[in-house]
Every structure is written in C-alpha cells, then in structure tokens.
Amino acid sequence: MKRILHVVTNVAHYDDPTHPTGLWLSELTYAWDIFAAEGHAQHLVSPEGGRVPLEPRALKWPLLDASARGWLHDPARMVLLEDTAAPDNIDPAEYDAIYFTGGHGVMWDFPDSAGLQRLTREIWERGGIVGAVCHGYCGLLNTRLSDGTLLVSGRRVTGFSWREEILAGVAKAMLFDAEAEMVRRGALYRKALLPFLPYVVTDGRLVTGQNPASARATAKRIARLLRG
Q: Which of 3.30.1140.32, 3.40.50.300, 3.90.220.20, 3.40.50.880 is the CATH number of 3-226?
C-alpha cells in the first residue's frame, strides 16, 4: 500500500466574485477511484486547509460523469471536502506521491503557497512521484529544490494550454498564462495537437496531464509508477 496526497483549491471565485470556480471534481475523483482500486491510502490537503469549493461547470451535463456523480452522492466522501488539512499539518515523509488537481481556482492559491512547495520538494527529494492535471500544474511553477533550482526547469510537462483557455471563453479572466509561465521557467512544455483531447507527459517521476479529459490517464500513469 502506498500513500497519496491530493492537493485541492480553497478559492471559490475569480477576481470577479460573481464568477464562481473551484475544484474540477472529476480531476480528483478519477484519481481517487484508480488509487483506491490499487489499495492505496489517500488524503487531501489545500493551501489554507478547510473547505474546498467546486467548479459549477464541472457539475453539469455532459461534464458530470459517473465518477464525479458517485462522489457527490456519497456523504462520506463529500465531508472530506469540508475539512481538508493545511500543509503545516502534513508530514511529507509519510507520502509516496503528491497529485495536484485542477479547476481555475488553483491559479490564485497554488503558485505561491510555501506550504505546498515544501511538501512537493520533500516528497520529490525522497524519491516520490509528483503529479498534476490541467491547471494543477500551476502548483509546480515556483517549487524550488534544495539546490535552488526550479523543479520544472529542463523537465517535460503539460497542463491546460492557452489555446484551451481561449476556446473555453475565459482567457480574459485569467490571472496569468500558465503555459507561458511554465516555458519562462525553463520547463519543456508539451501539448496535444488538438485541444481538449487526453494528453499525458511523463518525465521520470514527474507526471502531468493537459486537461480534464487527461485525468484518468494521468492517474493510471501514476499508479503504474507506484507499482515500481
């Protein structure tokens, strides 16, 4: 049995408080189901601890699938999103992998969270797996290793592309261009030829998926690495 730490957002809206956002639920539930089937222990952490809001668009047809519906209808799982741990309450030595989920909210609270950076650095440097899907890769933008280098520098990564932001109609509301920021930090950014299709990039113990459609494949890739 391995131990996996899922990272989720605390942010419930864009800069415009009338524009709600939050966790893209299926990006958590796909991974949770896959890791549970492997017998792994799983826990949730968020930048501030406490409640996790849900992205409303991800809870509507056709984006709300069986995995996310199963979570919504399970009170024992829903309560997990009401009281997540804060980074200071997590011992990274207890985890074999850290997995950053997405939803636009993460752009506001993942990149500059010193607590999340500490957890990521320590799990990575102990030989653990670092994973992210969609906007979750924003949580890797500013993580530095003990030698001062950026974790993503010189490594292949993917995540929600700027073209996908434009096509989703939200580019003008974005805090920054995550794709461009990754490239600026020296990451070797990759993306699928067509937007919104599943696409996963593995660079050693770093596993990233481009968009919500990539969540299942990303989790499967991490599960394969956890088997050793």
A: 3.40.50.880
pLDDT digits (tens, 9 = 90+) for 68-115: 999 999 999 999 999 999 999 999 999 999 999 999 999 999 999 999
Report d(CA 187, CA 148) in Å as an integer: 15
CA distance 216 to 167: 22
Round to whole Å and give the CA distance between 218 and 223: 9
pLDDT digits (tens, 9 = 90+) for 136-195: 999 999 999 999 999 999 999 999 999 999 999 999 999 999 999 999 999 999 999 999
SS (H, E, C) the chain: CCEEEEECCCCCECCCCCCECCECHHHHHHHHHHHHHCCCEEEEECCCCECCCECHHHHCCCCCCHHHHHHHCCHHHHHHHCCEECHHHCCHHHCCEEEECCCCCHHHHCCCCHHHHHHHHHHHHCCCEEEEEHHHHHHHCCCECCCCCECCCCCEECCCCHHHHHHCCCHHHCCCCHHHHHHHCCCEECCCCCCCCCCEEEECCEEEECCHHHHHHHHHHHHHHHCC
Q: Domain ranges in the chain?
A: 3-226
The letter for the amino acid at 172 is: K
Question: What φ, ψ does residue 132 adopt, rounded to 5°?
Answer: -155, 150
**Token pair in block for residue 17:** 């408080």
Burial class (CB in 10 A: 0-12, 13-18, 19+), 161: buried
